[in-house]
Specification:
Layout: E1 2-5, H1 11-22, H2 26-36, E2 42-48, E3 51-63, E4 66-76, H3 85-99, E5 104-108, E6 120-121, E7 127-129, E8 138-142, H4 145-148, E9 153-156, H5 160-163
């Protein structure tokens, strides 16, 4: 398996991965909207036998004036799930953002999956989600503790997360 940044040739395959992984079009529509609005910090694909089998996207997220990243969506084709592909995508994406100086990554996701990568409930850091969600599913990964010192409050995703259906 290889992980690399998406190219324009991957766009339709990414849409299919998201549709099949989530059994709906909303996540694919979100990816398309973020891409169309130049709101992609990082978009990676997982390739097996020259086929896109997984995808992860990060877009800008803010806490006050500080910009970090929001992880969403992350998808793997159903027949390739539970083989470590999603984990490799998260590890690769998080490392690239850390290397680029990103201070934090927020995620609204599975409370059993994301903590293995260092994500913790955002409330532990005085961060709250813009939507009413259970505390254990809104998490943050602090990549630069100096930049995050004293930062708390409302964490906000891009508007596309609230408007795309």
């Amino acid at each position: 398996m290889d992980i690399r940044e998406e190219t324009t040739a991957d766009i339709e395959a990414i849409r299919i991965v998201n549709r099949r992984a989530f059994a709906q079009d909303q996540e694919g529509n979100l990816v398309d909207a973020l891409r169309a609005n130049d709101a992609v910090l990082l978009s990676l694909v997982a390739i097996v036998n020259d086929e896109v089998v997984g995808h992860i996207m990060y877009s800008p997220a803010t806490v006050g004036e500080l910009e970090g990243a929001g992880l969403a969506p992350m998808a793997v084709l159903p027949e390739y799930q539970r083989q470590g592909i999603g984990s490799r995508l998260v590890e690769a994406g998080n490392q690239r953002l850390k290397d680029a100086g990103c201070p934090f990554i927020i995620v609204l996701g599975h409370a059993e999956f994301y903590p293995r990568f260092g994500f913790q409930p955002a409330s532990n850091y005085g961060l709250r989600c813009q939507w009413d969600v259970p505390d254990n599913v809104f998490m943050v990964l602090i990549l630069d503790s100096l930049k995050m010192e004293g930062v708390s409050g409302l964490a906000k995703y891009r508007d596309e997360f609230s408007t795309v259906t």
